[in-house]
Amino acid sequence: MDRVTIVEVGLRDGLQNEETILPVDVKREIAEDLMAAGVKELEITSFVHPRWIPPLADAAELACSLSPVEGVTTRALIPNRKGLERALATPVDEFAVFLSASETHNRKNVNKSVADTLPVLREVVEEATTRGKRVRGYVSTVFGCPYEGEVPLPRTASICGELLDMGVYEISLGDTIGVATPVQVREFLKALTKEIPAGCLAGHFHDTRGTALVNAYVALEMGVTTLDSAFGGLGGCPYAPGASGNVATEDLIYMLEGMGVETGVDLDALCRVSEKVGRRMGKTLPSKVLASWTATRRLKEGNPHE
Amino acid sequence: MDRVTIVEVGLRDGLQNEETILPVDVKREIAEDLMAAGVKELEITSFVHPRWIPPLADAAELACSLSPVEGVTTRALIPNRKGLERALATPVDEFAVFLSASETHNRKNVNKSVADTLPVLREVVEEATTRGKRVRGYVSTVFGCPYEGEVPLPRTASICGELLDMGVYEISLGDTIGVATPVQVREFLKALTKEIPAGCLAGHFHDTRGTALVNAYVALEMGVTTLDSAFGGLGGCPYAPGASGNVATEDLIYMLEGMGVETGVDLDALCRVSEKVGRRMGKTLPSKVLASWTATRRLKEGNPHE
Q1: I need a labelling partner for B99 at 20 to 30 A (CA). Which of A57, A82, A200, B182 fits?
Q2: Would you identify the CATH topology of the domain A5-267?
Q3: Cα–Cα distance, A301 to B44 (Å, whole number)
Q4: Fold category of B5-266 in CATH
């Protein structure tokens, strides 16, 4: 486990759940700062219809404003053929499609059944692949659904199989509402990796109940070495406004470095990005490493209670 | 791992690092509420000289104000013979002695070398044991010291040996400044339990860098089934004011119940305690389960952004 891939989703999954709408030039600066801090995979936005996610309405503008950086992959979420066309007109490197393992959550999210969503995604993936773009897949609510509770594993396994069959190169397993606990993650991955290779899987953990980091640790133990996270721990939960968001990139990196994993990310530079964004949004971002970094810096500056 | 003992240290380790000084009747009410929520081990205060920790200056008064509850053990920290005498005049059930694995931290904390501290503790433990009281031991900074950095394991092992030899029944291993990471905890416990039985050990993790819960999980995996925590995640870090405190009892219990461990604690009742204390202290306590519980309740009441 000496190589772990961190997928920074703060600009997409983080911002889509925040009330504050950041201007496109601020987002561009954040993206550039994150790349300068050493982030190599960066999900920058979503090409859903601007009406559905106003904070990401500037998707095309943001994607076009970024200069390519050697060794960095940018990615955007694509809901359907229309979104794909908009995205293909920008220089974003890769795409991602998404659906829910839970029927009800999928209907609420994209107004379609899972069965009706799959052909839409297949069309997107096939067209994108033809145009030379790699496509990642997201499966939401695999560890629990806000409407249905537990989601049977065979459902997730079958959806993962369909996605791989379409040509998706990696599937990110989402604990969308942050209910998963470590033994659940271990047992889930033990069963799922009998059908889907661990190398095709990523872990996407939300910290709604504080378990995101331990779930990420267990995923690593089970051979899943790609993990999604958001700088500062950005992003809330639409089902619990005020709750914590994605696992914080800072906290994940601190843990990984303590485990001897080289991440290539400069933790100090990353904390500076998050602090600036927190100030801009007028809130304290939930990352614990960020809080401790901020406290230590204030102490050094002689203003412990700023 | 179907039995885990949770030692609630919020009233002691939590409050000793908080600026707000709670009146004794509020503390008594908290203690009673915690017991009513199902907490079975409760560290209520410290009999250090009131000058050193003003928030705990009411130690004797608090200890005397509590009525014994069937099945609940109360405990107080004892620094020396004088503290022991004060504590023995109260009905507190058990005691705890403490020192640091790091020489510098111990000197800063108790103004004595480790070698000079051990005889003081031995006197306390022997006298307490003679008076029919069980004594727990705390070893601080075992995973890292704010002054010395890494602390060699043989140092901790030797201190643990001394404590057991005095008659201490359990040793709580403190990640005082919250620097530990899971592989470190695993390797540390693998080595330490060659000399000290896991059944005599407890884990005391601070969440300064977000790793407390994953460290607790690893400790459980290594056979350490007693864990310290504070309701709401109370307690900061004197070396980083504003950073997070002890692992939150709520988050620990949520994880344990997801692992099929029966804790006997009513999570809903516990969140009510923490919410009340947070309101009283005028701050949001850091527990993530608490945040999600609060958010869900506000949503139900129709005030999501209260």
Answers
A1: B182
A2: TIM Barrel (3.20.20)
A3: 35
A4: TIM Barrel (3.20.20)
Q: What angle do CA A230, A234, A240 make, to 5 degrees?
A: 125
What is the b/e burial string over A99-121, where b = at least 16 CB atoms within 10 angstroms of the residue's CB? Answer: bbbbbebbbebbeeebeebbebb
**What phi, psi does A4 have (nearest 5°)?**
-125, 135
Q: Please report, for residues A130, A173, B148, B195, the alpha-carbon distance to residue A88 in angstroms, rounded to integers and kept in the order given.
A: 12, 25, 54, 62
Spell out which residues of chain A touch residue B240, defining contact as CB-CB under 8 Å. 291-292, 295-296, 299
- For B53-81, what is each residue's pLDDT tens digit? 999 999 999 999 999 999 999 999 999 99
Question: Chain B residues with CB inside 8 Å of A242's CB?
Answer: 291, 294-295, 298, 304-305
With an 8 Å Cβ cutoff, is B182 touching chain A?
Answer: yes
Closest CA to B242 of A290, A32, A34, A222: A290
In this complex, the residue of A214, A248, A258 whose CB is nearest that of residue B255 is: A214
Integer-rounded Cα Rg, in Å, for chain A is 18
- DSSP secondary structure string for all residues of chain A: ----EEEE-IIIIIHHT-S----HHHHHHHHHHHHHTT--EEEEEE-S-TTT-GGGTTHHHHHHHPPP-TT-EEEEE--SHHHHHHHHTS---EEEEEEESSHHHHHHHHSS-HHHHHHHHHHHHHHHHHTT--EEEEEE-TT-BTTTBS--HHHHHHHHHHHHHHT-SEEEEEETTS---HHHHHHHHHHHTTTS-GGGEEEEEB-TTS-HHHHHHHHHHTT--EEEEBGGG----TTSTTS--BPBHHHHHHHHHHTT------HHHHHHHHHHHHHHHTS----HHHHHHHHHHHHHTT-TT-
Distance from CA of B306 to the nearest CA of A (A): 10
Residue B17: pLDDT over 90: no
Domain extents for chain B?
5-266
Touching check for A244 and chain B: CB below 8 Å?
Answer: yes
pLDDT-derived band of residue B241, with 50, 70 and 90 as boundaries? confident
Look at residue A2 in the predicted model and tell me its pLDDT: 73
ipTM score assigned to the predicted complex: 0.95
Q: How confident is the model at residue A237 (pLDDT cuts 50, 70, 90)?
A: confident
Nearest Cβ partner of B242 from A214, A255, A294?
A294
Cα distance between residue A237 and residue A260, in whole Å: 32
**Are the C-beta atoms of A248 and A288 separated by less than 8 Å?**
yes
- Rounded Cα distance between A178 and A188, Å, is 15
- Residue with token string 């696992």: A247
